[in-house]
């Protein structure tokens, strides 16, 4: 991320960190944290399809794990009570294109239900009345544990950056040098000077404050690679 602030426990109760449990041989395994996602039900997580297309792991036994409700990954005294669940099923959008990243979406099914608490809650999916609404200029948030600068190290704390939705024309101009990028009426783009989602956070969900329901959050898109 560019300009960012540390979040509090109650701001993103739906945020998920996804990892690969890699076992190159019996008795040896480790977790590689690769992506982020959003909890959308007791057993479902919304994330990006390209998180699960790493061909370099084909010769390893790989399982996936989700950690929900964490704040500081290196602390047990941050007030968080994270829950870890295994991923039972990966459902990738049937029209996902791994070159253009079109339809870059996946839904993960966990091996058991997540018990909701004040610190573990699902994000709302967009309401029907949001489908044709012009959101240009609306402030949105990017949250995650991604790098805070180019080729920097990932932070331990969950961070948030504020940015604004831009027009499709501006978005197409920004991506004009990437001929494989698909920018159409299914795409929302956000930009502010010095603010973006970096590396691990390209898999985080951009969320916007509901325009009609207090401070609830709606998961409106999965970010593309910047």
From TrEMBL:
GO biological process: proteolysis
Top-rank lineage group of the source organism: Eukaryota
Annotated ranges, domain Peptidase S1: 1-226
Gene3D superfamilies registered for this protein in UniProt: Trypsin-like serine proteases (2.40.10.10)
Pfam families: Trypsin
GO function terms (MF aspect): serine-type endopeptidase activity
CDD domains per the UniProt record, alphabetical: Tryp_SPc
Protein name: Peptidase S1 domain-containing protein
